[in-house]
């Protein structure tokens, strides 16, 4: 009895462990990830995961249905110890999941009856089973699910369909690519990896190398339907690659496609060129306007205009004027090969006809040509680009303010003259400025000189004062000496007088030295304050 | 969870590529992380009917349990502006409870969000920015979902 019991326990343990192992090999299927064979009713769909309901629950408060997992995840943030609760995602009614929340069995049955593809369909299983049975299918029937190798001493796993062939876990090498691997994985290798193995295309039944599979399915497979070559121009038909030629022969769009594409291309080119031209025109108009303003300001003095008219050589109708600016410009026109932009007929008479012979009539302006042209008005002293500018600017009429010109070249020459005038006016202005500058310097000089003389006068006055003071003191001393002479019985004491005379002399000499110092400082050009300080100094010294 | 998110987004994408309400168009959905939609607003003089507004959806791996991040994008080619609205900041951030953690519900989807924003714009009567727009645009470095908006205006 005890032995029986032990045996039963062992069998149970074996069964449990093998079940656990098979679960490890084939983890439970996530039913949300399944592909459904047929479309399902939107009413059977959980609004959260958009799959047919999985273990549906109904909220008693509002009757809305959700998958149990979906509503639990939604309410995961609003945890409460009384069980899952929160607001209904559809209508925001506060609700909770109770023990009786499961929906009626009929909904479960309907959703479990939907046909799904086996989750191993990518590995090759073609089974389509009901959703409720898919777990059983994978666990028990599916040939592409893993199970343990049947060999006793082998611990590895093998696909169920290969299990009957015994242990396949021995090394082989692929016949095509020479890679070594186990026999059990050879089939998968052949099917998806091996680059040298041919697989048959399902559409065209042709054997294709794995490594060429991408290009085959994209470009070469004759059974893949491709759009008509005239699709961009309106043909909506699609046909298999092999029959594309047949269609192309009958399709008007396809026939016209090369021409239409060429036209489209040309149109694009033309548009690009036109854009360039428009930009150029803007630049030119800006420059033109600038020139025009210069011209109109210049033409206000009438005598210069008269001079201009007489000096323009082309007005006289001479074809060649070498050495003159007109001839030079002509040469430049030809050099830069902008002959394609022919002047309007009136101008041709004024140009040397021999140089116009090799004009390329149909040549279009290459877009590159515009590259060196900077936007904004052109500097007026560059003759060569100017020639180009006015070749192209010729179509729009010269403004009436400048009078009618016989040709753009004429216009150009007059402009040249105006520039020359501008130049001379500039130089006159420069001279005037120079004169004014020197005048100003002179004035400044004069004022300084005046100031110096004023200072000298001051110093002279000071010296006169000093003189007066010294003479006054001399007189006082003499007077004192005389009084003493008269009062004293003793004769005049010469030593006294001599002493007084020496004192006066000393005083005079100090005054003189002070004056010299003052003169020195005045000469050094010191200001009024200094002068006042000086006179004070002189006074104290006195 | 990532599986559920991508599966649901795939289903939504299939539906969106089929039919969409008028005025809403899918622009790009190259991956299952960022989608862009174009909105046009009919019947509101504030928004010219020819003008389109670009919405950007950013999905987290826990979509649809978590709300996607939805902002308006401005671009120059094609020309897309940020629509003027009292609840839309100049940097494109939308103050809408639907897009916040509290207001979000996993039942919503890209289409329903687009419709909500479209109707929010269509019902707008004030051509103005939110108060403190310049300050917010200058100082805000947060993701829209981290900002604590105060939803006070039940009229939109």
TrEMBL record, chain A:
GO MF, any single term: zinc ion binding
Domain (RING-type) ranges: 46-92
Domain of life (superkingdom): Eukaryota
Signal peptide per UniProt: none
InterPro entries: Znf-RING_euk, Znf_RING, Znf_RING/FYVE/PHD, Znf_RING_CS, Znf_TRAF
SUPFAM superfamilies assigned to the protein according to its UniProt record, in alphabetical order: RING/U-box (SSF57850), TRAF domain-like (SSF49599)
Zinc finger feature spans (TRAF-type): 188-238
Keywords assigned by UniProt, alphabetized: Metal-binding, Zinc, Zinc-finger
Stretches assigned to the TRAF-type domain: 188-238
Protein name: Uncharacterized protein
Organism per entry: Oleoguttula mirabilis
Automatic annotation (TrEMBL), chain B:
Occurrences of domain UBC core (ranges): 4-156
Short name of any one Pfam family annotated for the protein: UQ_con
Swiss-Prot/TrEMBL keywords: Ubl conjugation pathway
InterPro entries in alphabetical order: Ub_conjugating_enzyme (IPR050113), UBC (IPR000608), UBQ-conjugating_enzyme/RWD (IPR016135)
Protein name stated in the entry: UBC core domain-containing protein
Organism: Oleoguttula mirabilis
């Amino acid at each position: 009895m005890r032995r029986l019991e032990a045996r039963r326990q062992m069998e149970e343990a074996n069964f449990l462990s093998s079940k656990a192992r098979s679960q490890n090999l084939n983890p439970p299927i996530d039913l949300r990830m399944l592909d459904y064979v047929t479309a399902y009713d939107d009413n059977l769909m959980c609004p959260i995961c958009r799959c047919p309901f999985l273990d549906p629950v109904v909220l008693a408060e509002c009757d809305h249905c959700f998958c149990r997992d979906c509503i639990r995840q939604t309410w995961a943030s609003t945890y409460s110890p009384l069980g899952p609760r929160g607001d209904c995602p559809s209508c925001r009614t506060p609700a909770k999941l109770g023990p009786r929340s499961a929906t009626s069995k009929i909904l479960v049955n309907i959703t479990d009856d939907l046909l799904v593809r086996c989750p191993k369909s990518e590995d090759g299983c073609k089974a389509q089973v009901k959703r409720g049975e898919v777990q059983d299918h994978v666990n028990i029937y599916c040939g592409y699910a893993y199970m343990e190798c049947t060999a006793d001493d082998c611990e590895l796993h093998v696909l169920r369909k290969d299990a009957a062939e015994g242990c396949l876990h021995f090394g082989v090498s692929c016949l095509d690519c020479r890679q070594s691997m186990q026999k059990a994985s050879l089939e998968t290798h052949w099917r998806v990896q091996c680059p040298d193995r041919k697989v048959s295309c399902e559409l065209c039944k042709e054997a294709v190398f794995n490594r060429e599979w991408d290009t085959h399915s994209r470009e070469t497979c004759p059974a893949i339907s491709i759009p008509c070559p005239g699709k961009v121009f309106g043909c909506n038909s699609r046909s298999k690659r092999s029959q594309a030629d047949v269609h192309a022969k009958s399709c008007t769009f396809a026939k016209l496609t090369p021409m239409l594409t060429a036209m489209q291309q040309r149109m694009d080119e033309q548009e690009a060129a036109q854009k360039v031209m428009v930009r150029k025109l803007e630049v030119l108009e800006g420059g033109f306007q600038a020139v025009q303003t210069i011209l109109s300001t210049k033409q206000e003095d009438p005598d210069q205009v008269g001079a201009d008219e007489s000096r323009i050589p082309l007005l006289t109708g001479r074809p060649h004027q070498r050495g003159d600016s007109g001839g030079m410009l002509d040469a430049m026109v030809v050099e830069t090969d902008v002959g394609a932009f022919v002047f309007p007929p009136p101008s041709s008479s004024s140009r040397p006809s021999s140089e116009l012979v090799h004009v390329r009539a149909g040549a279009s302006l290459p877009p590159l040509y515009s590259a060196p042209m900077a936007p904004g008005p052109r500097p007026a002293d560059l003759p060569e680009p100017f020639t180009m500018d006015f070749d192209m600017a010729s179509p729009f009429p010269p403004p009436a303010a400048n009078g009618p010109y016989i040709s753009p070249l004429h216009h150009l020459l007059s402009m040249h003259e105006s520039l020359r005038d501008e130049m001379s006016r500039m130089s006159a202005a420069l001279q005037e400025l120079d004169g004014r500058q020197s005048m100003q310097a002179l004035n400044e000089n004069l004022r300084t000189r005046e100031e110096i003389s004023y200072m000298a006068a001051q110093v002279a006055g000071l010296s006169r004062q000093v003189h007066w003071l010294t003479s006054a003191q001399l007189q006082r001393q003499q007077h004192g000496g005389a009084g003493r002479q008269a009062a004293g019985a003793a004769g005049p004491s010469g030593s006294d007088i001599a002493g007084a005379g020496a004192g006066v002399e000393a005083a005079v000499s100090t005054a003189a030295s002070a004056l010299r110092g003052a003169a020195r400082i005045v000469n050094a050009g010191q200001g009024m304050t200094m002068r006042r300080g000086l006179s004070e100094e002189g006074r104290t010294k006195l | 969870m990532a599986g559920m998110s991508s599966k649901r987004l795939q289903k939504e994408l299939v539906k969106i590529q089929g039919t969409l309400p008028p005025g809403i168009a899918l622009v790009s959905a190259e991956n299952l992380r960022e989608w862009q939609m174009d909105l046009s607003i009919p019947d509101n003089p504030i928004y010219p009917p020819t003008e389109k507004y670009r919405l950007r959806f950013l999905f987290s791996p826990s979509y649809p349990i978590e709300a996607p991040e939805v902002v308006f994008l401005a671009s120059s080619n094609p020309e897309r502006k940020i629509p003027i609205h009292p609840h839309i900041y100049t940097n494109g951030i939308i103050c809408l409870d639907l897009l916040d953690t509290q207001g979000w519900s996993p039942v919503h989807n890209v289409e329903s969000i687009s419709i909500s924003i479209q109707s929010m714009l269509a019902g707008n009567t004030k051509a103005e920015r939110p108060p403190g727009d310049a300050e917010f645009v200058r100082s805000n470095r947060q993701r829209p979902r981290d900002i604590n908006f105060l939803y006070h205006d039940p009229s939109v």
